[in-house]
Amino acid sequence: MAEQFVINGGKKLEGKIIVGNAKNAALKILAASILTSKPVKVANLPQIEDVSRMKELLIDLGAKFYSDTFNCSRLRKTDLNYKIADRFRASIVLTGPLLARFGKVSFPHPGGCTLGKRPIDLFIESFKALGASIKKNGSIFTAISQNKKLIGNKFIFPTVSVTGTETLMMAATLAEGKTVLKNAACEPEIENLATFLNSLGAKISGAGTPMIIIEGVKSLKGGKWGGMSDRIEAGTFIILGVATNSHIKVENCEPDHLDALLAMLQKAGAKLEIGKNYVIVKPAKRLKSVDITTREYPGFATDLQAPFTVLMTQANGISLIHETIYEGRLFYTDILNQMGADIIMADPHRVIINGPKPLHGKKIYSSDIRAGIALIIAALLAKGQSTIDNIYQIDRGYDKIDARLRALGADIKRL
Ligand code: EPU
User: Fold this and answer.
1) Bridge-based pairing state of the strands 247-251 and 14-18
2) 379 CB under 6 A from ligand 1?
3) Contacts with 23 (C-beta within 8 Å, 6 or more apart), sequence order
4) Would you please indicate which residues are annotated as catalytic (active-site) residues?
5) 55 CA to middle of ligand 1, Å?
């Protein structure tokens, strides 16, 4: 039988919790290792399912791993294993490095969280802009560059896309000439990736702003990744502390990456002490409702929307949650209603929460990573016992989450 979490809620938490390295940075660094034939050292990778899937894909291509160093000097193929790629969306970021270094890549439409349509048109269009031709055979796409070389060009993203920006930035690193990306995503993980690539000899400027300029180079050398604190994990733990009215310290975080969340929490009445690399949450007397709208960075992160929605079930008044990035990321609110919340879905992008409402334990199901962690928060603040099924989805993004929460005094068991 698949694993479950059994949670007895209603307890206050106490102590400190250390934030790990960012999933959405680590996955791209692993993909970027394809751009060089030299060894790349990646210490402290988060031990999560998505990282395991990315390693499996790289090994299937012919990459070698020795402890925390891996080597893509000799790959035996350039087509992504369909079965593995189908399990997580980030598999698509491998396409840019493979196309850039070997002139060819075949890949399926990637799987992952069911958050709505999640098209890949931007990847296809941006590869074409760098001179690649694209064919589709059944469900498999093949991109081929002329004479095994991509050609630098200007590409304006019609929609801001995180993995789209990262994939094209990696592809352009080995292209001939200069590439300019406009309307690029500005997430800190993109800046982190550019810093890593520059340390291998790439010439990238502007990452972290909407315009990124890449001067193509012939080859990259080896190097190492210094890591990056996971802002989504940090934000989730801070919300957990506020929602359970606890006194906890969230360590090894970058509060600067969480400005939009921290401002909203303070507006809602949370008591926070914000340090250089930590946030202390203290019990608050009364929480009041606030409205949020998810946006690209530096706006309110869609990946923190579900935990924040759980928090708003405990705030006084009416909150409007507007999810602008995905059209399928609010359906878990139905589960919160089964636990006692009063949430009305206005349309697939908006819910209205009438709080505060006491939540009670329930047998529930985790549909994706972020909804899954939000349900853990809901179960921890609810009275009584909850069982959460399909926790593979939570393990995709959070390293040993049960043990780390138990260290804060949470009553959570993995069965
Ligand atoms: N989009 C298109 N065409 C494309 C690609 C994207 O229309 O070719 C649209 C999407 O449908 C969406 C919007 O663009 O409406 C933005 O999506 P984006 O491409 O930025 O998302 P992503 O790159 O697939 C990354 C993270 C997500 C995070 C989003 C938004 C990774 C591996 N994933 O996804 O993280 O929610 O950016 O910040 O970096 C998660 O970790 O749980 C997660 C889903």
Assistant:
1) parallel
2) no
3) 46, 48, 50, 51, 230, 232, 233, 397
4) 113
5) 21
**β-pair partners for 42:** 225
44: left (phi over 0), alpha (psi -120 to 50) or beta: left
User: Which candidate, 139, 191, 197, 401, places its Cα nearest to that of 297?
Assistant: 191
CA angle 27, 296, 302 (to 5 degrees): 75
Distance CA 204, CA 373 (A): 35
The pTM assigned to this predicted structure is: 0.97
User: From CA 23, how far away is CA 373, in angstroms rounded?
Assistant: 14
pLDDT the model gives residue 87: 80
Question: Ligand 1 centre from 221 Cα, in Å?
Answer: 29
- Tokens standing for residue 203: 């010439």
Distance from the alpha carbon of residue 115 to the mean position of ligand 1, in angstroms: 10
Reduced to 3 states (helix: H, G, I; strand: E, B; else coil), residue 201 is coil
- State whether the beta carbon of 302 lies less than 6 angstroms from ligand 1: yes
> Ligand 1 atom 39: the closest Cα is on which residue?
24
68-83: per-residue pLDDT in tens?
999 999 999 999 999 9
What is the number of other CB atoms lying within 10 angstroms of the CB of residue 195? 16
Gap between the Cα atoms of 13 and 286, Å rounded: 18
